[in-house]
Amino acid sequence: MNAQGCATTQLDADKDGVSDAADQCPATPAGATVNAQGCAAAQLDADKDGVNDGADQCPATPAGATVNAQGCATTQIDTDKDGVSDAADQCPSTPTAATVNAQGCSDTQLDADSDGVNNAVDQCPGTPSGAAVNSQGCSANQLDTDGDGVSDAVDQCPSTSAGASVNAQGCATTQLDSDSDGVNNAVDQCPSTPAGATVNAQGCATTQLDADNDGVSDAVDQCPGTLASATVNAQGCAPVQLDSDSDGVNNAADQCPSTPAGETPDATGCSVSQLTGNVTAGATAWAAQNCSLCHGDGINDGLAANMNIDPFNLKKTTVAGLARYIEANMPQGNAESCVGQCAADTAAYILTWEPAAVGDAANGAVLYSKTCVNCHGATGAGIPPTFPSVQGATAADLKSAIMVSGSTMSTMGAGLMPTEIEDLGAYMSGL
Fold first, then answer.
1. Domains along the chain with CATH numbers
2. Which neighbouring-strand residues pair with 201?
3. What's the pLDDT band for 405 if we cut at 50, 70, 90?
4. What is the pTM of this model?
């Protein structure tokens, strides 16, 4: 008992209706409703977290947990109301009613590959770390714009048609141009065109074309229409396409491959100067062409002086030279009637008439001292530039000089007989 004679079971200091002996909350505010232990709600802390039950929004806080002013530990708080406590919530601001994972994150809050694009819109969820991505979360090596199975990062042909077979670089045959000639491989018939060469629609340069298939490219083929299987030279020409002497007869048929320019060949490619004359045939041609009507039957036997066949003129020519003259001029007025072999035969026949004349050098020396020495000197060296040397000159040379109209020699030689010209030639040729 106390001094007033009261036991503790009789005392109730806070007037809450619970004796001090049983009152666990001895200082209950006046008028507060208490429990059997004499405690008002404001005096209770059921979870021992330091926040009385009247204010404790989390009455079952684990022992020892740190709480906020509302008596809640972080494991008991769920700020965004997503069902995951703030302590475990990796996405504390989840939109209301969004479905979240165990970490409290919705798809719109996740970025599984850490590429800066959340999972909800990320079309490439496995982007390598650090790779640059587009707005869909895809890096270049994850994209395949043309759907050919080759990523855009290495695809050299980004617009391949759907379904086309491609190489490792993502290119179909119709997109490739291996030799960079502007014609793709699908139609390029010449896949190794040299750099810079101009090509046709099939991708071939002239150096790669061989239209006649003779093994010589069109660029150097001088005979582009060679027949199949013909043997050709380096210029792509078969013998039947060549005409080395430009006489109009190809080499394959040309029996005279070096016809002089300007001379007309026969079907064998031989001009009159290249034909071998036949004396017997020439005698027949002489008669058939009625040559004797003008020229008689021998040398200097013509009907007139200008129709004579001068033996000295004959000595200055050859069968070829005379044949050319006959072909071009004889018979007068009808030269085309004796050409080619006829002219060659006739020339051979005529040249049998006159044996080679031999001049008298001794008589020539006498004639030279009388008619030539004053201009050409004792040794024939001449007096340049007016009078040329006559050393080594022949009768033919002298005859030619005399024939030059208006020259000094044409005047001096007018009085010389043909035999005297031969004698002078014999002498001068030895000077």
1. 272-350 (1.10.760), 361-428 (1.10.760.10)
2. none
3. low
4. 0.38
